[in-house]
Structures are given as structure tokens and as C-alpha cells.
Amino acid sequence: MALKGNLRDFTITQLLNLINVAQKTGTLFIEGPNEKITVSFRDGKLAYAQAGQEDTSLVTVLHRSNKLTAAQHRVIKERTGTMSDKELGLLLINANYITQQDIITSLQTYFINTVNRLFTWVEGFFHFENEVLPPDDKITVRVNLENIIIEGSRRMREWEQLQDEIPSLDMALKFAERPGANLRNVNLSVEEWRVVSYINPKNTIRQIGQATKMNDLEIRRIVYGLIQAGLVEVIRPDGKAAAQAAGRVPAVTGSKEDQKSLINRLIRRIRSI
Amino acid sequence: MQTVKMVVTGPFNAGKTEFIRSVSEIDVVSTERKISSIAERIKNTTTVAMDFGRITVDDDLVLYLFGTPGQRRFDFMWEILSEGMLGFIVMVDSTRPETFREARSILETFRAYAPTPYVVAANKQDKKDAWDLNDMRIALRLDPKVKLLPCVATDKETVKAALLELLYSILAEMDEN
């Protein structure tokens, strides 16, 4: 019977551990709220992974890992047309473009990164199909799952911590107004500067993440760092605040004098308790 | 009859229910459940929806005190509870520094929900392992302008003092605007 369920009840760590211990061969299909990820295993080891319709062709993976330049990527794509990954790999090795180790390392990194994305998923339907493997023309790898599980568990803990710190990505950011907070005197990474450039009470953290092409973990990590450094504060986005204010029951109604009178009545009453 | 409300928030086991119980004229309407998680089994029950206390001011005015659930998985209640509040009190357990980060996060979340005045109550200051207020201010990253008050949630006088300080802050803000 196929292994199936929801990550809500059976975490990705538990799933990978099961596949590892049982030395399963087959493919795990996981459908999250926003994307699908497919991961194949041979004898309990990671063999292949693909996120949605992402281009996983060898030439693109090599380009992403900086083994091929953009120009090389474009030319090879044009000229190799229907050539399989295995054929292309042999061609590139024989032409001394890259080594066999470059191919294996690039594919391993890409597959592991794809699996790592799953560690931030709190829910998603999954099912495991025994003996189903990627097409023969795809290059597979053999990566032990133990290290992936350990690294993934660490990421999960970090993810939970970051979720506690930044519960919602629908909040916006503003620069802290405390004295001495000056961005010019701070050493920021390129990624941090990219995020900083989008900070505006109108932009939600989620929108900043999309604009800077960062996933939820990456944007949370950077925002958390900026908050910890006291450079930014989390606020409600401009538009949303206005919408909420419009729909909110006013805390105290009446003129300013009426409001102050009401507060003074409360003060007198509490003093008398 | 006019009703106004204040919200008492803070991490799990900070003393929110006790705080409201100390000054409410009615038995606190508490929606508590037995704790299921071993990690959180510091006490036997926890608030899952809200606590609700009342102080009648006069024939025309009633103050309601709402306590938020301390566990994060019930935080969907926070925004609902924060609507229309006069201000809020963040309760922090002075003896459990491991909850300070959570308290800071809750404070920021509530500030984002509604930019109303607030004070921070350092609860359990009667315990020998309670943190010093100055150290707590640093650990909680509180602005010097934010009132950090010593508190013992079971002691009516310190609870009254916290409520009064919040009301003074509300008055001060009205004067500023």
C-alpha cells in the first residue's frame, strides 16, 4: 500500500527517516499550498529531486551552480536540443568544459537544496510510490539521508524560532527612529541591502521577499537580523491599517474632554478597589 | 451604558489570568484547558481563548479586562481581542528569561495591531530568582519611555498600580495629540 498522508501529522524529518531506515526505492510526491516537490530515492538514498515545473535540465543546473556562464548556457541549450542529460554530460566532459565531479556536485547541491525547502513546510499532502524512479535519461545521484535530516532538523528549529519572532509576513517594516540607528555605519550584506531598499510601510515582508526572490526562510532570516540590530521595526502595512481603523470600534468616543473625563473616571474607580 | 476594554497579554504562564482575577469584581470567565504538551506542563491548565474580567465604574461605564491566550497556537485570537482596546499590558514572568524574547515578540505584534498605549508588567517580582527591572528592560529591548512596572499578579495593589500607570499613559497621549 502506498505511503500517504499530510506533513501536518507526519513531518518531513519523520518521512525521510522512514525512507532511510527502510531503505526504500521509489518517489515521494508532496503537494504544498504553493508548489509541488518530487523526490526520488534508491535504496534509502536521495537520487533525484524536482520542484514543480522548475527547469532541472543538466545544463541549467550547471549554470545555476556557476559551472557554465550565461552565454555557454544559452548556446548549449540552443545546440543540444533534444539531447538527454546523460548524453550532454558525456559531451561536456569530453569537450573538457567540466569534470564528472562538477556534474555530480552540482546535481547533489541542487537536489539537496530542493529537499531542504521541504523543511519549512508545515503542511502538504504526500504519497510515496514504490519503485517509481525518474526517467532513464536523467542523471541520478546517491546521497545519504542522515546529514540531510540533521541539517533539516536544524533548519526546522530555526524556522520555528523565526516564526515566533516574525509571526506574519503580511506585516510591513519601517526604519527604527531610535537615536544612533544609522544604516550608513552598518555593514550589510548584498542580500540585506536588497531587502533594505524595499523597506517602506506600504510593502509587506511577503512582498519584499517576492521582489527580492527570497523564500520565506531567507526573508525571515534577514528581517530578523535587521530587527535584532535595532535597525527596523515591524508595523502594520499602511493600507491595512487604514482599512482596520475604518472597521474598528472606536476605543473611546466623544470629544477630547469627554474622553479624558472617561479615563479619569476609570482612574478614580481603580484607585478605590 | 458605555463599555471600554483593556487587554492583558504576554507569554504562556506569565500570570495574565491571576492579574485579572486580582481586580475583577466577577469571577474571571476563563476558558482554560488541561495542558497537553509535556514541554508546557509547568502548570496544569492554560487559557485557550481568553480570560474575561469586569470592573464597573458607575451606572454608565464598565471596564472589561481581556486576557489573551499565552500559547502561540491560539494567537488567532489576539487580533480579535485587540480591536477597540484602550491600551494593553504585557505581562512578563521575571523569573523566566527564556520567555523574554517571546514577550518582546508579542509586544511588537500587539503594537502592530493597534497603536495604543501600553505598559509592561514584570510579574513574580516577589520571587528570589526574579530578574532586576533594569536588566529586564535591556533584555526586553524596551525604550526608556516605556513603563516597566514591578508586579505580583496575586497582589491587588501592584495590579492596580499597573492599570493606573496604563491609564496615566493614555491620558498623557490624549494631551499630546
What is the fold-level CATH name, i.e. the topology of chain B? Answer: Rossmann fold
Strand content of chain B: 25-35%
Proportion in helices of chain A: 40-55%
Mean pLDDT of chain A: 83
- Which whole number gives the mean pLDDT of chain B? 83
The CATH superfamily of chain B bears the name: P-loop containing nucleotide triphosphate hydrolases
In total, the number of strands of chain A is: 7
Low-confidence stretches of chain B: none
The strand line-up of the biggest sheet of chain A is 1-5-2-3-4
**What number of domains of chain B?**
1
Q: Strand sequence of the main sheet of chain B, in spatial order?
A: 2-3-4-1-5-6-7
Shape label of chain A = elongated
Q: What is the distance, rounded to the nearest whole angstrom, between the alpha carbons of the first and last residues of chain A?
A: 67 Å
Could you tell me how far the N terminus lies from the C terminus of chain B, measured between alpha carbons in angstroms? 26 Å
The rounded Rg of chain A comes to 26 Å
Biggest contact: A-B, 30 and 36 residues
Evaluate the radius of gyration of chain B: 15 Å
Summarize it.
Chain A has 273 residues and is α+β, with helices and mostly antiparallel strands. In chain A, 48% of the residues lie in helices and 14% in strands.
